[in-house]
Amino acid sequence: MIQRLFGILAALFALLVFGPAVGAPYPQPVDTYMNDFAGLIEPDAAQALRGSLAALERETGIQMAVLTIRARSDYDPSTSIADFAQRVFNGWGIGDPQTNDGILLLVSSQDREIRIHLGAAYDQAYDVIAQDIVSNVIAPRFREEQFSEGIEDGIMQTIDRIALRLVSESPHDGTGGGFLDRIDHWIFGAIAGIVGYGLFGRKIRNAAARLRRCPGCGTRGLRRVTVRLPEGGRRLRTYCRNCDYRDDRMLREKRDEHVRHRRRTNSSGGFGGGRSSGGGASGKW
User: Fold this and answer.
1) Considering all CA atoms of the chain, what is the largest pairwise distance in Å, rounded to the nearest integer?
2) Beta 113-118 vs 103-108: how paired, if at all?
3) Other C-beta atoms within 10 Å of 263: how many?
4) What's the whole-model pTM score?
């Protein structure tokens, strides 16, 4: 009887002491953009990626976070990678609660699982794009054990093909209206989208250029500047500070500065309380 009572007390003590740590459903963030708990990302790449993600949020209002973990079993092994990502996304509150356009890139290294989880603003067409990025961009890199490069490529593809695409789409007011009214909205949305993509994309790519390795010497950290030509026009110059590599491309002049601006009014940092409905895509390597 005494031994049984002692066993019960020991079990209760273990539950009180160790239960909260074992039962944590997901990790707590230490950074708004980069939480590399599995140690998969090179330090210089992580710093550059953080700058790119900060530029994305600053220029478009879209918040994207990256989370790498050792294994889901460290938290809640009973869930799928999609359910785990949903719990992290809504638990952290990624993105703006008014637009719900946040994005989470999740990697579980021992489970060999990848997930791009999308906010409620993204329809099923974006799930298809996310699946292509997971399967054909990130996973092939991971199979070669190029984890940092795979995450870098995945982030930039997600910015270009998902985040900036959402920015370029025209809003739907849901009020119906006549056919001509809808044509006007479509035309305006297309024009604003093209201009918006050029404005936002250029600024974000300037920040992202520091991720790229120089084709000449292999050093990471290319620079981009705009050069005005004496005869008129402008040229975008990409160059390396460590060798003589240089790539010049002519720029077309902007004709219209009118664009649907989606910048967040509160840019104090941290998560804003965004929600996800479970959209996105998963994969393994």
Assistant:
1) 97
2) antiparallel
3) 11
4) 0.65
Whether residue 225 contacts residue 251, with contact meaning beta carbons closer than 8 Å, is answered with no
Task: Write down the mean pLDDT value for the chain.
Answer: 76
Q: List, for residues 18-67, the tens digit of each pLDDT value.
A: 444 445 789 999 999 999 999 999 999 999 999 999 999 988 999 999 99
Bridge partner residues of 115 (DSSP): 106, 282
Question: CB atoms < 10 A from the CB of 179, how many?
Answer: 7
Q: Where in the chain is the domain with CATH 3.10.310.50?
A: 25-172
Contact 101, 126 (CB under 8 A): no
CATH of 25-172, one of 3.10.310.50, 3.40.50.300, 3.40.50.720, 1.10.10.2910: 3.10.310.50
